[in-house]
Amino acid sequence: MSLIDGMISECGSGTSRLAGELLELQGRWSKTEAMLTAVKDSHSVKVSKLEVAIGELERDLGKTASSLPKEKKTRKAKSSEVRRLQRQIEGDAGLVSRGIREAKDALPLATIEGGIAVVQSFRSETPPTLEAEEARLFGGKGDLEVMDGDFDLILADLKSACFLPTCSQGPEGKDPVLGGDAAPGSDVATGEEGA
C-alpha cells in the first residue's frame, strides 16, 4: 500500500503545484486583461479624438469645396481682367509706336509741303495769261495817250519822281542822265521856275 499511497501523495502534490500555477496564470491573465482593457480604453479615447478631428477636417473640406468654385471664378475673372489690361496696354503701345512712326513719316512730308507753300507764296498762284498781259499793256498805253505825247513833260515828271542826288552835282546846263543840254522846259515841269 505504501506504493499507492506514495503515488496518491505524489499526485496530490502535483495537483497542488498545478493549482498554484493555475492561480499564478489566473493572476497573470487578470493583469493582461486589465492591460488590454486599459489599451482598449486608451484606443477608444484616441479613436474618438480622431473621429472629432476627422469631422472637423470634413467640415473644413466641405467649406473649402464650396468656396473652391467661387475662388476659381474669382481667379478666372482676375486673370481675364489681367489679360484684358495686357491687351489694352499692348494696343496702346502699338498705337503710340504707330503714331510715332506716322509722325516721323509725316515730318519730312510736312517740311516739304511747308517749303512748297513758301515757294508758292513767293510766286503768283497762276501765271498771267497772254490775254491778261495784253489787257495790262493796253491799259498802260491808254495812260500814255492821256499825257498828250509831250516828251519833255514826261521826262520832267520822271525826274521829279526819281530824283537822283547826282543830278544836282552835274555841270550847269548839262543833263547828266541824257549827256547833253538840259531840256528847255524841264524847269517848268519840275516847278523850279517860281522857286
From TrEMBL:
Protein name: Uncharacterized protein
Residue ranges, annotated region (Disordered): 169-195
